[in-house]
């Protein structure tokens, strides 16, 4: 069992007793103290002695960022490329997958807008096609349909682990096995899964996955990472290179870095990167399974309580659920729900159709309210939120 008292004492967001109910870890979570202290401390050190010396003092800690991430997702540190967002990481991999005219890219119903836009742009540029894998009756990615769709022209399947607009968890490992049966690559968007449900790259067997720092990992903004399967990290040529991702050998040649760091540029926010490392280390110290269990229990509590309120509809799809609880209130616009709750210091967000266009259009939804409780939220606070929703 997670020690809720400790977790809350570790969270500066609870330092002053404001009565805050924070339900937006799917947007940008509250970081633990060690993350804030790490980032601020490093910025002060940079101001005191300059960024280069400050970074050189922290070389072991910087290397340990990838070790911690590797431990969390069961990957070798060399298969991790750090970046400034999940989208950057996703695109770094996606734009480097060789595509030819007639190639097929598969996306799914809950694919994220940025991924779909990139897929459409590249397909247009190279004469490839983007096709959508249907959802099954539960709303998750339809494995039978995927099986029927795949052939040797499919180069890449974009799988969304946990979508941004609801509590669905897609059968990523099963979809990956189907994609691999025809030699297609799988790029998993694990932005909403890492830090709240187990993400094990060996079990999932995906070729690459992208994650952001600020959501369930509770890291700083402007951080993210890409995992690339080691064989691919050693052979794929990224679209863009610099003096960190490659080495200038002579007047006519360069040599790519031997591992996933070929997907990184040299310059980065050192303080933020150290903060990401601190966030992942903190999660590992708490015990990821205990954190995941605590999140699931909170989401389940909301999924039971919200439908009891007349006029409230929970909009989550799928069979297996994540910590994101999406809902609508009859006659009240989701933005008004958010704003009226914010007046009581209850933080939820709104997920708009523009982020997950295929799914939301199919369901005739323009937007939904999204409540995403992390392990640090108390059940009494969940009940205060439910009461506030029923008073709308
Ligand atoms: C938030 C989100 C992203 C984008 O993450 P950034 O760090 O903002 O680039 C991608 N996919 C999903 C499913 C998301 O929820």
Automatic annotation (TrEMBL):
Enzyme Commission number(s) from the entry: 4.4.-.-
Entry's family note: Belongs to the class-V pyridoxal-phosphate-dependent aminotransferase family. EgtE subfamily.
Native organism: Nocardia aurea
N6-(pyridoxal phosphate)lysine modifications at: 215
Assigned keywords, A-Z: Aminotransferase, Lyase, Pyridoxal phosphate, Transferase
PROSITE patterns per record: AA_TRANSFER_CLASS_5
Enzyme class: lyase
Tree of life domain: Bacteria
InterPro entries assigned: Aminotrans_V_dom (IPR000192), Aminotrans_V_PyrdxlP_BS (IPR020578), EgtE (IPR027563), PyrdxlP-dep_Trfase (IPR015424), PyrdxlP-dep_Trfase_major (IPR015421), PyrdxlP-dep_Trfase_small (IPR015422)
The protein's annotated pathway: Amino-acid biosynthesis; ergothioneine biosynthesis
Cofactor(s) needed by this chain: pyridoxal 5'-phosphate
Signal peptide: none
Any GO MF annotation of the entry: transaminase activity
One Pfam family it belongs to: Aminotran_5
Function: Probably catalyzes the conversion of hercynylcysteine sulfoxide to ergothioneine.
Domain Aminotransferase class V: from-to ranges: 21-385
Protein known as: Probable hercynylcysteine sulfoxide lyase
Substrates-to-products reaction catalysed: S-(hercyn-2-yl)-L-cysteine S-oxide + AH2 + H(+) = ergothioneine + pyruvate + A + NH4(+)
